[in-house]
Amino acid sequence: MELLEEHRCFEGWQQRWRHDSAVLKCPMTFSIFLPTPRTTPPPVLYWLSGLTCNDENFTTKAGAQRVASELGIVLVMPDTSPRGENVPNNESYDLGQGAGFYLNATEEPWADNFRMYDYINDELPALIADNFSISEKASIFGHSMGGHGALSIALKNPGRYCSVSAFAPIVNPTRVPWGQKAFAAYLGADQQKWHEWDSCWLLMQADTTQAIPVLIDQGDADQFLADQLQPAQFAEVARQKNWPLTLRVQPGYDHSYYFIESFIEDHLRFHAEHLA
């Protein structure tokens, strides 16, 4: 690994690293916030960003480090997709580089590189565990496409995460334009194969004996709420399953990082409670 940046921040360290990913077959960057060392190794909270973002958006805009330092939580912010001259891309903002959708692609030209699920679920946690002092406890959260990633990854791995939360997540990608476009490209025309990456479908299949708490914040002035996000669909499945979900609709808030930074402390304290 190569250290690209390091900054003192709220008595901890904000760092940015580059490494060669065997899963994605390209160099990858991730950002990490390390709180002041304590007597016991700290838990890890993974953040997954949305479309067009990389590992730096949350680091520089969310204002999470102060509370993470207080709570003694390591924050890990990966990139949203593989990148590079030899990685397939598309001119659209919602497909290709910057739009990995946290799944494993099966279709050409994407299948060789776009395996973000394996990267987030396996390769990156192993890399973090090998190079930093952390506990085995982990939680996950994200925004928009990253909210889809956080929810679907948590639901696909019962027992792995202590909690999951999301800001304005794409909860039902098989039924909204962003998800349908990406899934058709990455997974092919067989829509039955799409289900295993759809949080609503995954929640319907989930074992309630392994339920973990879920927190979702959604702004009611979000320009993507009606067409792309539809958190009420996920909430209805959670109601039917008696799943521990808190869905908060925040009046006047949009899809931006101003929304995220307004409620990031709530999410960090929510995860800290369940990581304790």
UniProtKB/TrEMBL annotation:
GO terms for biological process: formaldehyde catabolic process. It catalyses: S-formylglutathione + H2O = formate + glutathione + H(+). Keywords: Hydrolase, Serine esterase. Pfam families: Esterase (PF00756). GO terms for cellular component: cytosol. Its EC number is 3.1.2.12. Gene3D superfamilies: alpha/beta hydrolase. The active site is at S144 (charge relay system), D222 (charge relay system), H255 (charge relay system). GO terms for molecular function: carboxylic ester hydrolase activity; S-formylglutathione hydrolase activity. PANTHER family: S-FORMYLGLUTATHIONE HYDROLASE, S-FORMYLGLUTATHIONE HYDROLASE YEIG. Belongs to the esterase D family. Serine hydrolase involved in the detoxification of formaldehyde. This is S-formylglutathione hydrolase. It comes from Buttiauxella izardii. The lineage of its organism: Bacteria, Pseudomonadati, Pseudomonadota, Gammaproteobacteria, Enterobacterales.
